């Protein structure tokens, strides 16, 4: 999130946060404001009592009278906060007032009032009760200009004497009362305001698309999470400050309005303006509100007991692209109702795909808003991965209807209670509609490995975050730790308590705290109680909450060492220690309340056993007895959030078994063994020859999971060694390794869901390492499309074909794809072209593309960060891209630095290959220069610095070892 100027627009420390007005200016402002209020009254009627507020028509907008955006209140002298000494100085809201009910009436004007300048007008009222006597009403407000602010006592209807101002550093509207508000009494704060309907993807904003008639159509939509409801109307914008809402939205034909609840009435108000009024919401957090004014079409599932509609651009709906989401939505909803044993609480679940949206989707209660790529699916031109993305994101957002919406975290530091749950339960929901996709297996390579790779850094953080206050702090929490690690811990809990206790605990937890707020303490209490009452299940020896706190209140995770006392011994000693990717990191910094010791649910299996054993491991060593000469595997089936290391003999026994009969070892464990081995070697806990030898069984094992795990691990070697002498033998080895898989799957599409995924891996790997036949085939298919105008490339292979043809081509291939990109209406196909454009190896084309990225007439703002990331993962484009980003950082930050832009993503991708002292100095200089302009990327810069230091040492320690092993292998081929 970007920084905020002081109220008066000056940066002087003596005036920051203050309104500084001369006496003459105050008089002038009062006169102008009175004129404005009279005008507003003529247009919309004077401000009536709560529930009957009309918006002034936006084609005659209210104008501000001060460049600062502060409008002087009528009936009271203008006052302003006196700097950082009052209750407005705290970024958190005071606890003096408790909101009860809002009436929000918004009128977005979809026609510009001047070139590229759009506005919305609004009125709002909020009823609140007074918990502690106070002279101030402090409520969130951002980028809103006020023409009227009135406070009334509800019981008497008497207006209370007050004055108001805004305090922009903390995004507050501050209303100062002449006399203190009385404890126990209820009041109403009513406002009339105007805001810009910008294209900044936050709050109430505008989006646009080009219809089939080549007309530009503007719509209004919202993204409130986490701190942008205040940009649409003044509100108590914290998740625990829940209330009910009455929403009214204005629109003109052919537009209509959508919000969280069903509409009650649509009435003609003023000329061609209509206003739709919606039913009252349940008690909910402000960030879950959603407003859309559009001309879209929809499809509806007629068999669902809950109205389930999919909205999208008319041509997308006409083409049937909403049908898949329509069909799976009620099945997932009903499955969740059964799984949680808690009914979906709303009468409808609308889902809408908008052209411009910052996130993948947003779980607004009853009106989920998506990027088009996350909701729309065309079986004729979209791939299996596109289909899975739709199913997974729909399941994720529907899971939020319980986790996040029905119950919400008391504060953003517990965001994992929303996102961790949804990220785990999405697998359960998707499996309910697509049981052949092996979603439970995919979790290992999609979320478990991703989480552990980030969490192995000292610059990681605990799941329950610390020092979360500002919008930037909050935005930074939408990261791998909240999503993937949160999901991993919940999955681990599910596995050791079993489905019965897991579901019972969730049911009781949801029923007890519905429409309220929670912390992890309540969740763990209810799971612990469920375990205690479920036959055959035991809580951890130290108690459920105590054990699980070690996983969420400290960062990182352990490596469990399983080592024989001697090569001939049957005794295996188990110890745990913190795992860090940097072997030279200081283990005691930062400190942990648990001294980096975890209560580990440890599963293990010895060769020839048919079921695994669970034991609990803490700070005491444990000794096991295993059969002589047999391998053993810890964390069998990879449900635990930890790594396992073995003595060299056991690694050799496992490697021999994989080479001689890999089917005997569970496929999730095969994937986990590869990831563990490579990451342990990276951390200098294992010689690199062990994970390299471990990959040899992939010549026979064609399953997606171990291959995906291996390709992810080897991608690190490529980043480190892509410009070293080791890359030659590495590419030769990889071509030999992938050869059997490539020949087995061929270019003929078909097979199971994961076989289609694996074909992409096979062809992508073969072409990526320069397999002549693969590259030629990709180029021929692309050129056939280019010359005939007919695209016969199977959807599953389009990204691979496009990328390789552009990488091995020149300007003609790139320009052809660019024209297709500019004119493509299907969002998934457009995304494939976008990714492929970043595959070019031609410097001047790379530079031209970088210029295009920052021009939103070419590239939508929502897509800019992903293109930067794709270019940074391109060996030929990464240096130029990093230089460009550093050069243009001020522009990027000023334009995109509003919270939605993935600063962390581009920092991670553009520095992932850093492995020299020169690159480290570049990174440190970037941090020093832009320390206050990193947005949500602050933590990512620290992680990048740590990773770069680790990478520098890694190359010194491992480059020769890897080069020697690969050279020996290549010489024997």
UniProtKB/TrEMBL annotation:
Aminopeptidase N-like N-terminal domain location: 98-288
Entries under InterPro entries matching the protein: Aminopeptidase_N-like_N, Aminopeptidase_N-like_N_sf, ERAP1-like_C_dom, M1_APN-typ, Peptidase_M1, Peptidase_M1_aminopeptidases, Peptidase_M1_dom, Peptidase_M4/M1_CTD_sf
Domain of life: Eukaryota
Keywords annotated in UniProt: Aminopeptidase, Hydrolase, Membrane, Metal-binding, Metalloprotease, Protease, Transmembrane, Transmembrane helix, Zinc
Ranges of residues in domain Peptidase M1 membrane alanine aminopeptidase: 324-531
Enzyme kind, highest EC tier: hydrolase
E.C. designation(s): 3.4.11.-
Entry keyword Zinc: yes
Known cofactor(s): Zn(2+)
Signal sequence, renumbered to the chain: none
Domain ERAP1-like C-terminal: residue ranges: 632-948
Positions of transmembrane segments: 26-47
Protein name: Aminopeptidase
